[in-house]
């Protein structure tokens, strides 16, 4: 029998330990929670995606009574950015969640579909996307989406 170990380095930082650009991205993600349409879950998620030229695109979760029809904040931001500037690689994303009148104490992580969509972008552009997950107790910083989805399916298996 063979065993495979998967190790992921996650930094936990406070806002003042981030660069000015990263603080701006986190604040934009927090602000994007206010544009969430979440009448069913009341779980407002915001995301902000920075592209290689420094431009930032925001997104928020959009729910629908037919639940599969909705879209997560991460993919909303990513797809909007790609529709506007497909030639530019995404380099960082920040994600925040707000519910019950406050931001979550601990960070939330992207769902599997969002991880897969962002992983495809890493593969497409040949560079990692740094992920910042906001929580009141600290911000998790992960160097690559691949770290959040270690046993990847990136399309290379289909060739």
SSE arrangement, N to C = EHEEHEEHEEH
- Main beta sheet: 7 strands, mixed
Strand content: 15-25%
Number of domains: 1
Quick one: CATH class? Alpha Beta
Tally of individual helices:
4
CATH architecture: 3-Layer(aba) Sandwich
Total number of beta strands: 7
CATH topology: Cytidine Deaminase, domain 2
The protein's oligomeric status is single chain
Shape: globular
Head-to-tail CA distance between termini: 29 Å
Uncertain stretches: none
Mean pLDDT across residues: 95
Structure description:
The protein is of the alpha+beta class and 159 residues long. The protein has one domain: Cytidine Deaminase, domain 2 (3-Layer(aba) Sandwich). 27% of the residues lie in helices and 23% in strands. It contains four helices and seven strands; from the N terminus they run E-H-E-E-H-E-E-H-E-E-H. Strands 1, 2, 3, 4, 5, 6 and 7 form a seven-stranded mixed β-sheet that branches. Strand 2 and strand 3 form a beta hairpin. The model has no long low-confidence stretch (mean pLDDT 95).
């Amino acid at each position: 029998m063979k065993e495979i170990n998967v190790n992921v380095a996650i930094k936990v930082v406070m806002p003042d330990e981030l660069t000015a650009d990263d603080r701006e991205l986190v604040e934009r993600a927090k602000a994007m929670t206010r544009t969430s349409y979440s009448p069913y879950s009341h779980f407002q998620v915001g995301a902000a995606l920075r592209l290689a030229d420094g431009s930032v695109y925001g997104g928020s979760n959009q729910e629908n009574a037919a639940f599969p029809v909705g879209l997560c904040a991460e993919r909303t931001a990513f797809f909007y950015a790609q529709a506007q500037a497909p030639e530019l690689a995404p380099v960082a994303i920040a994600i925040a969640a707000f519910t019950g009148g406050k931001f979550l104490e601990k960070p939330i992580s992207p769902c599997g579909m969002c991880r897969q969509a962002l992983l495809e972008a890493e593969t497409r552009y040949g560079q990692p996307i740094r992920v910042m997950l906001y929580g009141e107790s600290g911000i998790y910083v992960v160097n690559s989406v691949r770290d959040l989805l270690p046993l990847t399916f990136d399309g290379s298996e289909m060739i």
